[in-house]
Design brief:
The protein is globular, with a radius of gyration of 25 Å. By secondary structure, it is an alpha+beta fold. The protein has two helices and 17 strands. A hairpin with an 8-residue loop joins strand 12 and strand 13. Strands 3, 5, 6, 7, 10, 12, 13, 14 and 16 form a nine-stranded antiparallel beta sheet that branches. Strands 1, 2, 4, 8, 9, 11, 15 and 17 form an eight-stranded antiparallel beta sheet that branches. The chain has two domains: about 55 residues, no CATH class; about 190 residues, Jelly Rolls (Sandwich).
């Protein structure tokens, strides 16, 4: 009995220590069509909404169901950063997120300290498995890292996408993140982190996922293993206590 219980506890500890949600997902440049669900600016009126956090929606007039947050610096390891003011407008029907006090340089930038948007978090209410966007940074050729957080991940850990860092090209460069072959992977939010100030982030669209079967958390796995061990011990005792059949001559 002791051996069975020790084995179950060890298995539970391994389950708790092993990341349940370690799913490598890629990001790359994209030239294909937009994804099914376009993200609009709030109300899609073309009037800028300003703040550290601004909102879009997945259909015109649907309300604020997509959140964009801007940061002058962000640490994915600690999931914290310094917020900065951004705005959102409706550019060609898509949400366009920009540094609210960005100075478009003509020759020498008169106030480079104003260009301080280096990270954006896109967080919709619904889970998704693909994300497409385009962006332009102040200095082309700088690294861009894409992180993602999976839904139902109890650790709330940012995962670096395969293919990061991206080399941002000249002008607007379009990217696609995720795997079209596995729509069961439910993503919660995206972190875009640039080594150069972000001028704007636009052409936002996502591919929504269906209802995902509930994935047990590590603690739940541990309880299940202990339960199975208990059933095994009970069955073993039952066999030992069962009276032997009388031998017939």
């Amino acid at each position: 009995m002791r051996r069975v219980l020790m084995t179950a506890l060890a298995s539970a500890a391994i389950g708790m220590a092993t990341p349940v949600f370690a799913v490598p997902l890629p990001v790359a440049q994209q030239t294909g069509p937009d994804l099914t669900t376009k993200i609009y600016a709030s109300g899609d009126s073309g009037v800028a909404t300003v703040g550290n956090t601004v909102f879009g929606n997945t259909s015109p007039g649907a309300g604020h169901d997509v959140q964009f947050s801007g940061y002058s610096q962000f640490n994915a390891g600690t999931n914290s950063g310094t917020a900065t003011t951004i705005n959102i407008t409706g550019g060609n029907g898509f949400a366009q997120i920009a540094d609210n006090d960005f100075v478009n340089p003509t020759g020498n930038n008169p106030n480079p300290s104003q260009d301080n948007l280096f990270a954006v978090i896109m967080n919709p209410d619904a889970n998704f498995y693909m994300y497409e966007f385009s962006m332009q940074t102040l200095v082309s050729g700088m690294d861009v890292n894409i992180f993602y957080m999976l839904a139902n991940d109890p650790t709330h850990t940012w995962i670096l996408a395969t293919g990061s860092p991206l080399q941002n090209g000249n002008g607007d460069t379009q990217y696609i993140f995720g795997s079209p072959s596995d729509p069961s992977v439910a993503i919660d939010q995206i972190l875009i982190e640039s080594h150069s100030a972000i001028e704007h982030l636009k052409q936002n669209s996502i591919q929504l996922t269906g209802t995902r079967p509930s994935v047990p958390e590590p603690a739940t796995w541990g309880l299940m293993l202990l339960g199975f061990a208990g059933v095994g011990v009970a069955m073993r005792r039952s066999r030992k206590n069962r009276p032997a059949l009388m031998q017939v001559a």
